[in-house]
Amino acid sequence: MIKVLFICHGNICRSPMAEFILKDMVEKQGLSDQFYIESAATSTEEIWNGIGNPVYPPARDELRKHGICCEGKRARHLEKNDYDKYDYLIGMESMNLRNMARILGNDSENKISKLLDFSDKKGYSSRDIADPWYTGKFGQTYDDIVEGCTSFLEYLKRENKI
Predict the structure, then answer these.
(1) Residue 13 is part of which domain span?
(2) pTM for the whole thing?
(3) What is the number of structural domains in the chain?
């Protein structure tokens, strides 16, 4: 079982989009039984009295446009013990990685990366996925996440992990 945790700032846009996009991809490829996929936030801004906010409506709507449902997902905070629970802890941008390091501590097993680290599109490496909360470009975020998730699955196949 490959355990993946996607992480962004609030867990209401990018990381839940990545969670449900990858779940959709592995389901369509008949690989669902080989994966455990979730998402979390580095911030508690979207969590009130222990209850996380649902996926931000424009992010939910973008997923729905592509036939992907995220119903029931609520923001949750990244916890230090998540490092031991997951094989891959994948952030969306450099700031996420800094906050992940603050919460998780030392990455002694090299589990932490950015999603687009798996992509070699246009020769770029280490690109960030912009936060659509600020840009308003939910379609672009969706496309970037699809690129990252596709590349992540290709990486796992090259490494004979699936």
Answers:
(1) 2-158
(2) 0.96
(3) 1
Task: Give pLDDT tens digits for 118-155.
Answer: 987 655 557 899 999 999 999 999 999 999 999 999 99
Amino acid letter, residue 29 = Q
* Residue 127 Ramachandran class (φ > 0 left, ψ -120 to 50 alpha, else beta): beta
Instruction: Examine the residue annotation and report whether 64 is marked as an active-site residue of this protein.
Output: no
Q: Which of 13, 14, 82, 149 is catalytic?
A: 14
- Kindly report the CA angle at 52 between 59 and 13, in degrees rounded to 5? 20
Q: Give the CATH number of the domain where residue 61 resides.
A: 3.40.50.2300
Q: Is 63 within 8 Å of 70 (Cβ atoms)?
A: yes
**Is 143 a catalytic site residue?**
no
